[in-house]
Predict the structure.
Amino acid sequence: MTKSFIEVQFPVSKVSKESYKERKANYNQTLTGLGKWWGRKPLILVRATIIGLLMPASDNPVKDREIFLKLLTMDDEGLWRRKNKNITQKELYNKLTPKERQKWFAPDSISDKPKLKRGLSAEEKDKLQYLVFNRLSYDEKLTYCDRPEHINGPSERAWEEINQHLGANAKSLPEFVQQLGERRFGHIPRVGDAFCGGGSVPFEAARLGCEAYGSDLNPVAALLTWAALNIIGGGPDVAKEVRRAQQEVYEAVDRLITEWGIEHNELGWRADAYLYCNEVICPECGWKVPLAPSWVIGEKTKCVAKLIPDEINKCFEIIIETGVSNEEMQAAKDAGTIKGSSIVCPHCPESTQSTPITMLRGDRRSGGGIQYGLRLWENEDIVPRPDDVFQERLYCIRWVETYIDEEGKKQTQRYYMAPDENDMRRERKVLELLGERFNEWQEKGYIPSRRIEPGDKTDEPIRTRGWTYWHHLFNPRQLLTLGLFSEITYKYYHSKLYHVENLLEVGRLIDTKGIGCKLLRWNSHSSKEMHATVFSNQALNTLYNYCHRTLCVLDIINEKALYVNNSFILDIKPKDARQIDVNCDIWITDPPYADAINYHELSEFFLAWYQKHIIIAFPDWYSDSKRALAITGADESFRNSMVDCYRNLAKLMPDNGMQIVMFTHQDASVWADLALILWAAGLRVTAAWCIATETDTALKEGNYVQGTVLLVLCKHTSNDTAFTDEIYPEVEEEVKNQLDEMLALDDKENPNFSDTDYQLAAYAAALRVLTKYCNIEDIDVARELTRSRQQGEQSQVEKIIVQAVKIACDYLVPQSIDNFTWQDLNPGERFYLKGLEIESHGEYRSGAYQELARGFGIREYRSLLANAQANQTRLKTASEFASRMLGDTGFGVTLVRHILFAVREVVRTGETVTSRNWFRNELGENYWKQRRTIITILNYLANLGQNQNMPQWEEDANAARLLAGAVENDHI
Ligand SMILES: C[S@@+](CC[C@H](N)C(=O)[O-])C[C@H]1O[C@@H](n2cnc3c(N)ncnc32)[C@H](O)[C@@H]1O
């Protein structure tokens, strides 16, 4: 069978950059505005994957790549067509030669403020833009471009070339996809995702013209996917209609709130934000202490809350001041009454003012565990009872005054104020209004009525606040506004589209839009001084102070309106991946693998609001998170569930079908597990590519080599058996072949593969060899999958994978060091020299060095690092080593270490004779034998001086160059 493009090559660097650009667009990504889902895959990655799977590889890999880039509008022409803004005059000027500057710029131009010549026609200006645009790097170009999804695929000219190369006859991506599908499968290709999450795969597949199937165990995910295809993909008319309905609901809710007078004050101002805090009684002095980690309300407006002691009532009055001095701002920060996990009572003397929260809650050790002390709330509790530990208090309202200025324009002015008696009366009214509706609303599902099931993530609200039902996470104002919104929506709007859109709108209101819940943080740093989002991390973190925004600040969502042909949607539903029974030619999945996101628990925050209405819209769906079926963890039961899922998917594809499994790149043991799982499921690995999809990998804890691995798989068809001792040489050959192919394809100017991609290729090569066999005599797959392992225990498969990485590390000799020299060096020396090469590519992630050390089988490498911090990791220079480690065991006794010392001596003494003599003395006879190696390594170090990523090497590199000359000229 002809191989697919993605089985042979993949432009990882460009796809990573495009994915990164998409992720950076935050809420401007096509699907994110629909609602929260964790770990959505970039659409461009899905598009590249589908096209890469469908496009056959020819015997001309260079042309294949060119065509593939055209299809994705990632070639020069495509990028130019995606350009959406002009390159600035300054940038143009800087990219031109002096002669070109004379041609285009006015003679009195200076680089800081260049001026284009007068009278240039639009056409000429465009020509200049084109000239300079083509000189920019890919990253620079992207800053001037829209995303590929924003233009209508390749140009007419590009289609001619694409069609000619592939023998197709297409004028659009859907036509292309359908023709290639026909060719390979005999029909329009069917693409499915059984872990569809936020819907990236089915959405992009349908948009590309494939028939799309999507399912996920979680109904929230299914809902988001359905909405992606039918609302966003419903085209402009659907978007307009949905928006109109939503506008009506907003207006109706707003009218009622205004009538009730619960958000307006006596001056007619409207509140746009309410800030609440907890209050507890200090066990030392008996005073009521309001809680907040800081009392700053707005950095920009310099607004703070101040606690004023009230000796008579043993509590604090809270006053709000705006425009305070910097000292007062600092004081408000320092005056936080929560520090770490203790309350700090401002009334107590310093020695007794700190009380651990656990003590306040009354948590106690009992038996082997902890017994939590808080009273557990009951369904009817909508505010704390008077004797509860944590009381809730409104401490600030932001009011908006609207007036007409002298020029007749509408103006607004915002004021932060402490609540007065009238505000407290309004709070009571809110409670009263909610009380009147509470039972009916719960019954009708307008507000949640579900219990919080304990769990890893859902324990926190129970343990730290005593909340036991989901509605306890909301205060009366929030419940009243949200309940009203639901009531009006569900009473008056019945079509499936409205239903889904409004369910999702409730999801947005409680999370990002600001009606919020008691987990919604106030962001005093933001220039707009506004709410943050609930899920700043993947947890349900309870807060000591939180905010609520009112309806008046909310916008109707401007759903993106794109067109997805409805007839391409096969089905979208909640379903366990083990249970699905739909055949697809291609499965693209991103299972909950080695990521610690507790989808099933976190989604219950939303499901509590959707529970009754999701099944009205979709009578054949279910509305709970099916925790017991969710795939999580990493133990044997997890591995077995994964095998069951993938065995089912393998069964649901034809013999010439293909799969892509995406997962986060981790260490060899994770790869080994995945190999076992896929192997046991009857799948064979044909290739693997690593795409950097995360926007914030640099900031991630552990700073591991991050990225999404695309594992390309097909059905296992052979019955071959092998022995492990046959496997090792085969893996070696496969690794080398793979690296050779990648090296041949790589572009020196604009590298496609990074150092870690080459290492990754080794993992993939090992998997390819292993999974090629139906059986390997010494590996009992079933047993490996089911047995529990000791920490650090290496399985047979893991050993093979580690060996593959070692082969790759040894095979990838740094440029300018010959194989002969390389073979003479020991692993520590190779790690150091290869590490310098990685550093020269601007790689400072600690994970990259960790991975390299693992590849060379080195345990201790930290002593070679000048900086071990995440994203600043680099090796010591010769001078930084000084005389450290010299003569010790390990790296200290190696030739490289001696060379580094000699270089440092040249820097220190300013001459080469001492170092050269030192070589002679230290190395004795060996000096002459190793002279070539010494010179090679010195030259290698000398080259570092020219690398802009390694300024710290400038002096040492110069010394290395001088010393290389001295050793070269040395003779007996
Ligand atoms: C990493 S996410 C997928 C994200 C998705 N690719 C996207 O772009 O949004 C993994 C998904 O697997 C789902 N899941 C967990 N256990 C499952 C099961 N037994 N069957 C089907 N889906 C499951 C989770 O609900 C989650 O949505």
